[in-house]
Design a protein that fits this description.
fold of a uncharacterized protein from magnetospirillum magneticum, globular, mainly alpha
């Protein structure tokens, strides 16, 4: 078994686009994610039905957005709908290593070998393979595994990576976003079904 354990709390909520639209501008003003979360919870800015659901949503959106740099947060607040979806997909992939590895090893690879669609069974097979090294996956209840799969596919649809029938949608990133994502090592272009070259060392 490997030393690190996968975070497995991406069971609901999709990309949290609406929540991010509220949290990101707050961060620009407060420059402190703890204060952002406190403001969201105390004022029920996400309009949650219960205190517990509001706290859960606030925690989740803040945890994901902390994966973005300040420059990426600035872009998120002014970006097109497509760019926002891509950035929130990146935030989720950075936060959840299992999701990021699925994006790189299955979604992107299937696109590059010209597969037209992504099958739900591909996710189950991926998790079974990873469970050989991760006991937390081997111990997953079937219902939890199903929720993880459903939310992963929901996020990919909301990000514009999958279309009807789970067909893989080629992504064309704007130059500013591609440069930002490819500036990391390893390049975060690996999370997308795109022919954009992923250069070693994050240089294109």
């Amino acid at each position: 078994m490997t030393e690190h354990r996968y975070r497995l709390s991406f069971t609901t909520g999709g990309l949290l686009v609406r929540e991010a639209d509220i949290a990101a501008p707050l961060y620009q003003r407060l420059c402190d994610w703890a204060k952002v979360r406190e403001a969201i919870e105390s004022e029920n800015l996400l309009q949650a039905r219960t205190v517990s659901s509001g706290q859960r949503l606030a925690r989740e959106v803040v945890q994901r957005l902390t994966e973005l740099t300040d420059g990426e947060i600035d872009l998120l607040t002014e970006a097109s709908a497509a760019e926002r979806g891509y950035l929130l997909w990146v935030a989720a992939c950075r936060r959840y290593k299992l999701l990021g590895e699925f994006a790189e090893e299955v979604l992107r690879e299937r696109f590059l070998v010209l597969a037209s669609a992504l099958d739900r069974a591909d996710f189950d097979s991926f998790v079974r393979t990873k469970s050989m090294w991760h006991e937390e996956l081997a111990e997953l209840k079937a219902s939890t595994s199903q929720r993880l799969r459903s939310n992963a596919f929901l996020m990919m649809h909301e990000a514009g990576l999958l279309g009807d029938g789970d067909h893989i949608t080629p992504v064309v990133l704007t130059e500013r976003l591609a440069d930002m994502l490819d500036g990391r090592t390893p390049s975060d272009l690996r999370f997308f079904p795109t022919n954009e070259p992923v250069a070693a060392g994050g240089e294109r």
